[in-house]
Amino acid sequence: MHAVSSLAADVIPLSRLAPAADRTLPVTPALAGLFPDAGLRRGSVVGCSGPAATSLALALAAGPAAAGCWVAAVGLPALGVEAAAQLGVPLERLVLVDAGHGPAAWAERLAAAADGFEVLLCAAPPGAERVLRRVRQKLQARGAVLVTVAPPGRVGCDAELATADAEWIGLERGHGALVARCVTITCAGRRVPRPRTVRMWLPGPGGEIRLADP
Amino acid sequence: MWLAEWPVLAAGVAGDRPAAVFRANRVVARTAAAAAAGVAHGERRRAAQRRCPELEVLAHDPAADARRFEPVVRAVAELAPRLEVVEPGWLCLAARGPSRYFGGEAAVAARLVGTVTALLGEPAVGMVGVGIADGRSASAIAARRAVRTPDGTTIVAPGGSADYLAPLPVGWLRHTGDAGAELVELFARLGLRTLGQLAELSPADVLSRFGPEGLAAHRVASATDTRPTTTAGPPPEWSCTHVFDEPVADTGPVVFVAKRLADTLTGQLADSGRVCTRLVVTFETDHGEHSERIWYRATGLSSTAIVERVRWQLAGWVGDGDLTAGVTLVRLTPDEVRRDEGVQARLWGGRSRADTDAARAVVRLSGLAGEQAVRVPEWAGGRLPAERYRLVPAVSADLDDPSGRLARGEAPWPGAHSGPAPAVVPPEPVAVELLDAGGTPVRVSGRGAIAAEPAVLVSGQTRRRVVAWAGPWPVEQRWWSGQSRRLARVQVLTGDGRAHLVALERGRWWLLAGYD
Lengths: 214, 516
What we know:
Chain A is of the alpha/beta class. In chain A, 29% of the residues lie in helices and 29% in strands. In chain B, the strands form five sheets. A six-stranded mixed sheet of chain B has the order 6-5-11-10-12-9, with helices on both faces. Chain B has a six-stranded antiparallel beta barrel with strand order 15-16-17-18-19-20. Chain B has a three-stranded mixed sheet with strand order 1-7-8.
């Protein structure tokens, strides 16, 4: 049999044959509807913006982290660790990395983190886009996902998740306390054929992440 | 049975030409002529070329090694059907059956050497070694030493293996794959220079001092590894099979499927705390052709090791060129499993690939950015968001077992906020202004009552309208330590849908956290 001979060609069919589950990282069910692949596409950059940007970034990281992935937060010194835990990120797989001085140091650390972490959270510093090329290559080579929290800097994203119309319940004028938040999330971008929108609890009254009843 | 310098033999280089096979810039095998010129294993390419300028440099090609080894395996299988391939160039077979048939162990050994030398021709003369001893590892050592004997055979009398091994240096453990370089070095540093000295220690002492790997080494040294006591025949349902709908005429998809089967198999075994040491890999084609090999690895076959062996076997089978149809079936059958002594002892259920990668990246990042720049959370407890977790350098934390670091103590924290935790907690509070409708700063009385309703939150240049608020919740803490703090916390919701936690301390408002 002559055709069964191309050992050298092994590598290419392997990556092409990879099923969808291997090309994406799983997300919490409530968020799956936002993505065409129902998960975070490996190698992509996802941007979060609006009044619930940080919570959304943590909620995005929670799915892969619960499945065993490690999460590195690069240049997010103010990340609320307790909120991360509440939103479902296992703290045993969360590492925080300082960004260092300037976009070059930030990109270098991000690229180094992409070697061992499958989910990277970051806030892009001003001038980030210029230095992001190497990081993108590393993300694609390692199959990691970069989740950016805006502001300050902006980078080109494969999918942009905008949070809007945040409504907190529980807090009144002079009494009560924050209990739960309902927020609208819209996913758009060059990898998303048509924008998708969901209204969801982030978090709900019991701390859960779920879709809001229509 | 051991074929010395198999990679150069597989490359088809005559022994009288100086040549060496390199992997990662180091010599892994060399011809007799190169050895005579002083080229040694593990030497860098440049050093080897300096010793022997006319040295022919060959790249290591594991697939070719496997392919060329296939005829050898077949020839040996004619004499002794039940054989295990450990790696290309290294076979393991049960001597008892064939030695009865051929009239003694010496006769079998001589016959094996003769068969393989005849098959491979002139370059293989003096490269084939057959060793017969108690157990796989002892016989592997005997076979390697047999290469240097005139007839290529070494036969150790039954029960005499421990005595045979005793004078040998502990470095042999590395060659048989029973111990890593680190452990061998440790033995040597502690004065255990020969296998005999190691064998004299009690197994319990070895286990407590060197762990499971040390115990495995001890078993080899004392030649008691004939069949590890914890091995058992696995139930047949652990066998993993994939039948292709259409015959596959390419190795890529077969390897891919084998990877999935290997993941399933190792996953199942790992769930019950076991590891496969001997595996049967079977392929079948549409025309009923069939390839079956037994693979053995003393330290257990990981998923990647299984895939590597599948690849070797396919390469050998396909390389013959007498296949007439595509592959229709792949089956992995664990033939021997044992308890996984290596990683199962960990409380945290062992390390995954992701854990290993992350641990490596942490070390790398710490070197790049400094230890203080790469940190992991540790539970501290407290009433204020910034106090709840502290960050400690990741290199000094136990990433494998974080339970001690993250366990939240029993102590309740009255006065800490329940409800959602803020997602943004600045390490240092940020000065802000909380103004009432008239534009004057909001005050809190000594009794904890707010003087006027907050209307505007000013942080930096941004003014936000307050739409809801609650508080103040007073905190007095560390009055016993001298560093006493009194703050009044207020949750504030602003018109843009953002919620904030602010606090009044010493007459100023501070932003403690944001619920972004």
